[in-house]
Design brief:
two-stranded antiparallel ribbon, alpha+beta, 2 domains, Chorismate lyase, Arc Repressor Mutant, subunit A, DNA-binding, transcription, 12 strands
């Protein structure tokens, strides 16, 4: 009985410490209490505490330094992927160019009924099915299963899919992607995704199901994606609309983010300065003041 309880206690301590690290209560570089102190605090054995620390270390949240202790790892240098929900399709292509991919499987199969229906396939039509893992800074963050109608899947090879974004390959074939519908949820990692994402079975994951359509409404891609929540998040800008008494939040589609606007302003200022330098002009006092404030 004890052998089955100890792993549960270790996971409980792991989750408690993980929450404190993520919330910032234990700052980057901070030293965790020693194993004896943690064991006394949680009324468990040091072996149980060690198991909890093993899980934190495997996730990259802490670093153990022999003779010094266990320290919170500064993960700020490794930026997670942030998806902009207001610009899904272009974001996916850009993401494909800035991350690495590992192709796990590639083949042509009869699709499940639900996927065939979502793509509007006729009875007997097959799909090109692939499973890929995307990595950022060498670390896996997403597990992607895609289904594409066979006639479209035949326009690219397995090697091309392993090297280029799927949406780019689809549009290269002459198919125009116009809109997509998607649903976001949460789930637990099964054996295969857990192994691919370097997680424990049962770890929490974000899940996204997306169906991409061409201008005629025909489905050209069905995507089921699983994401590590510590390495991927969804972003959406919102604005208040409506009359008084009926005000509500609505997606700010097509509006630039504040950070994007700031970047554009900085780029514009740098270009103006460079143009003046080429023309032999000296920067004005105003331009020096702007530089000092930035």
């Amino acid at each position: 009985m004890k052998s089955s309880v100890e792993p549960l206690k270790a996971r409980r301590i792991y989750l408690l410490l993980r929450d404190r690290i993520v919330a910032g209560d234990l700052p980057p570089g901070g030293r965790l209490p020693g194993e004896p102190a943690l064991a006394a605090e949680h009324a468990v054995s040091r072996v149980t505490v060690r198991r909890a620390l093993d899980l934190l270390e495997k996730e990259g949240l802490v670093q153990r330094k022999p003779g010094s202790g266990t320290f919170v790892h500064d993960s700020r240098a490794v930026r997670p992927i942030v998806a902009d929900l207001s610009n899904v399709l272009s974001h996916l292509i850009d993401m494909g160019r800035s991350t690495d991919v590992k192709l796990l499987s590639f083949g042509y199969v009869a699709p499940p009924e639900a996927i065939a229906e979502s793509l509007g396939l006729k009875p007997g039509e097959r799909v090109q099915r692939s499973v890929r893992v995307r990595l950022i800074d060498g670390e896996p963050f997403s597990y992607l299963t895609t289904h594409v109608p066979e006639w479209l899947g035949l326009t690219y090879s397995e090697a091309e899919l392993a090297a280029r974004p799927l949406l780019e390959l689809i549009e290269r074939s002459g198919v125009k992607t116009e809109r997509a519908t998607q649903a976001i949820n949460a789930t637990l990692a099964g054996p295969e995704p857990a192994a691919a994402l370097d997680l424990e079975i049962g770890s929490p994951l974000l899940t996204l199901t997306r169906i991409v359509h061409d201008p005629s409404g025909r489905g050209v891609e069905h995507l089921h994606a699983l994401y590590r929540p510590d390495r991927y998040s969804f972003h959406m800008d919102l604005v208040r609309i409506g009359d008084d008494g009926e005000r509500r939040w609505s997606p700010a589609l097509g509006r630039p983010r504040a950070s994007d606007t700031a970047k554009a302003e900085r780029a514009k200022a740098e270009k103006t300065k460079a143009d003046k330098n080429k023309a032999g002009e000296k920067p004005t006092r105003g331009s020096r003041a702007i530089k000092q404030r930035s």
